[in-house]
What we know:
single chain, mainly beta, 48% strand, globular
Amino acid sequence: MMVTPPLTQIRAADRAPQAWRNGGGRTRELLAWPAGPNWRLRISLADIDADGPFSVFPGVQRWFAVLEGGGVALTFAGAEQRLTPQSAPLCFDGADAPGCRLVDGPTRDLNLMLRGGARGCVQPAVDGLPWSDAWPWRACFASGAACWHGEAGVSVQLAANTLLCNLGPGPCRLVASDPAAPVFWIGADVETRETPA
């Protein structure tokens, strides 16, 4: 029988930003499992300040969602796709490395990357409605203050830009204090008895 690790909160405010080598932005790594360069699952926040191409990640399933700002225009094989905080998260092959153009100034964005054959999802949380998708590993992310409600009356208050990991099985709900601040469910087919670092 698999034992679910305890709930773990990871706040972006507690993670030091790492500047990109091209000077176009900064990344805060919220989670990497396993820790180190051979991760299979990685979740991060990116602050994009300038136009430029995404990094190439062969063999990586990548999810991308705009949290703040006017949005971006990503170019795949000559076709441009615009994303704003109101857009659904986009899933694409990390080897594609699209060009990125800021629509109206800097943005903050959520990234999920999975490799080694792992698959997952990032989907908007509908305010107050239960989420029961049966991924082996489940989490949620709130770009604004929110409250997560699990089974047996368990609830957790989340500060803005917080990742809550190890939700375990069963239905849960996410209620945002600000309806305009995007909140997301995150699922992945990785299985671990450890708490991701």
